[in-house]
Amino acid sequence: MPYFEGWKRDVQLRDLSEQQGLIISCQRCGFNRKATKGSLCASPERELMTIEDVEVDCICMTTGCLGKVKISMHGRHTAP
Ligand SMILES: [Zn+2]
Fold it and tell me: According to the lineage, what is the superkingdom (predicted)?
């Protein structure tokens, strides 16, 4: 994992503000979708997951793709 991806291991979903935009991009088909903390927190336990964990847990929502996704911050970047 590249150094600049390291913040994903340190940041939990609960650390993000409700307004923080996230981009979930598929590594397979390239489809991007916007997300927020709220849309990713399907259950309270998810708040304790790191961004890295959520990345592993998420799959592309495009029909039939189910590819791996990458999560990035939209707008202001949280310092690692
Ligand atoms: Zn996809």
Answer: Bacteria
In this structure, the strands spanning 69-74 and 32-36 are unpaired
The rounded Å distance from CA 24 to ligand 1 centre is: 10
- For residue range 53-63, what is the model confidence (pLDDT) as tens digits? 999 999 998 98
CA distance 65 to 43: 24
pLDDT tens readout for residues 5-58: 688 999 999 999 988 999 999 999 999 999 999 888 778 888 999 999 999 999
Domain boundaries, the chain: 3-74
Ligand 1 (ion): residues with CB under 5 Å are 26, 28-29, 31, 60, 62, 65, 67
Q: Which amino acid is at 53?
A: D
Tell me the whole-structure pTM to 2 decimals. Answer: 0.79
